[in-house]
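Lay summary. Proteins are chains of building blocks that fold into shapes, and those shapes determine what they do. In this project we predict the shape from the chain. Here is one chain we studied, written as its sequence of building blocks.
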Amino acid sequence: MDKLPEFHLPDKPLLQQLVHEELLPFILNKSAVLAVMDVFKKEMADNLARTQTGHKNTSGLKMGNTYLTEFLDGTENGGFMGLDLGGTNFRVTYIELADRRVVRELLHKDTVPEAAMCGTVDELMDYIAGSINRFIDKESLFKESRIPLGFTFSLPTVQQALDSATLIVWTKNFRITNGLGEEMVAKFRSSITRRQLQHKVDVVAILNDTTGTLVAGNYKNQRCKVGVIIATGSNACYMENATGSNANNTGSSVIETDWGAVADNGCIDWLLTGIDRDLDRDSNHPDSFRFEKLFSGFYQGEIVRKILVDLSRKGVPLLPEVVSRYDHPYSLTTKTVAAVCEGTRHSEVIDLRQCDEVTDLVLRRICEVVTHRGAILVAAATAALLARIGHPTVIAVDGSLYDHHAIFRRCLHGYLGALSPIEAEFISVPDGSVLGAALVAAIAQRQTRNAL
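And here is the predicted shape, written in a compact code that computers can read:
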């Protein structure tokens, strides 16, 4: 297992002590990590028990039923579409399945314009529907029957059915003026009708990016029963037995944990540092998704920046050019954190070879500590999930933080191996949320056909 490297400031014991004291709250001992695992286990069990008995959920974990009860079984054949709306960017894919293999795949990437990001929900859906129409026409996809489409909608919702989800709150870059409490598939279908697409596509499923990643991972390896997103935000889902889920059917159901929000009910307030609290207070969505704010790709660079600025204010003699460069919120990115941890030059960070020794060593130390804390928190949450599943499994993972921060990824694997006795293999599933949406559309169509 990767351990946090030793830290020394040669001939500067007082400065070394000052840096150590600043970073000490971010260094988690074994008892703290085990306590985090226990919190996750309790929150999962409590939420599922309350759901079964009809009591109100007070857990930070949503543990929502996705109403997806099966994976591919090999009988799904034909053409299917997937749509992934995750923020400013969205993706559309078309796949053709034959004997459980994707034999043709097309991918289109688009950007949501600013006007649609801050207008009404109808304007957003109209733009997406228009982009889908252009994709279908460009690739000459429409034949005679409507193409089943799965919609990955990566925002907080309450799901009522596989093809029905009500929006709870707008997050990420969205500043939409309405839509809360409305059913998103109905809104999207209305836009499809306005764009005269109703004879081309049939929206048969709505899902979260985590569920899409799990389904895409199961397509690659049928032992895969867990999906994890580690990107600008973070979430996880897994296949739960019906006796432990709120599924209204026999068999199993994929449960979305929404683990990025586990801290929102105060269950791990003891873990938060002063800088964590400041970051949450100053964020676009205070008091929400506080767990993912401790490590996710959107926030990791900001944590490092806040520590760096705080140390400078306390008298640590850092290179002025570095401090001034990162004086503004979110000016230091997680991409830079990864580069510093790896000791490589990066266009967004001042070449460390031109830094004085103190700035070089202190910046590296901050990045290492924040990276290791993030990796061990994700490992603790994953270990709790494995304990609930109770058997070896494959974990499908997607996201920019996991893909592009090599030290974080390596630490996550090492810490999980140390924390969990249950064997788990990670598989990377690039574009899993959009491929998974198309695969879920195939599953939904097969279930509808078999029910006739």
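What the prediction tells us: The chain is about 40% helix and 20% strand.
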